[in-house]
Amino acid sequence: MAEIVIVPDRAAAGALVAEEIAALVARRPDAVLGLATGSTPLPVYEALRARLSGADVSRVRGFALDEYVGLDPAHPESYRSVIAREVVEPLGLDPDRIRVPDGTLEGIEHHGADYEAAIAEAGGVDLQILGVGTDGHIGFNEPGSSFASRTRVKTLTAQTREDNARFFDSVDEVPMHCITQGLGTILDARHLVLLAFGEGKSEAVAGAVEGPVTSSLPGSAIQLHPHVTVVVDEAAASAL
Ligand code: GLP
Description:
The chain is an alpha/beta fold. The chain is built from seven helices and ten strands.
């Protein structure tokens, strides 16, 4: 059973998770962090600025969950750019030790396996930060994704493209495909920390935490993991 923590607001969630991450890095200077994008994890990265300032982060490694396919890596909304801007630069991490799946088209058929090999070589992810989509997706594992899936190219659903259109000028600019860690990849992390805020996430949270374990709601895969922390505000907890 996941540990559920209900916090008053995003800042409190960020502070809580940042504290956990800072303790991990203090214990293990070469900790491997599983990084997420979207708006949900931003309070964590914000709180980490103060929490990690003065800490030796030179050996910290990180792997992002996912990336758009076919978007110029230099595009401000590529997850490579987002991770650089929100995580690597403000926290002073070594950019060579932080990876984002490669969504460039050339050699795309090998990028998933290469990414899996890199995670394995790093010894696996110690703490995986997760947001959740309104349809229950984690990473970009949309409904129907196999619980055994590994990093691979997927097609984005119309719903997710609409949800993410706010980061682009229009929905037409949102790529059609992505490369994402699989549910099997995510479940291999040693500790999963799923965050969600706002009423719009309440059904996805309830399904993930206490609904049937089903690929129709990919977030429900967390019920198969022995060490999960769910950090939500009152609104996101309202359907529990
Ligand atoms: C995107 C990301 C997910 C994220 C989800 C929720 O689709 N690939 O990793 O969890 O959006 O986004 P937000 O946190 O902005 O609500």
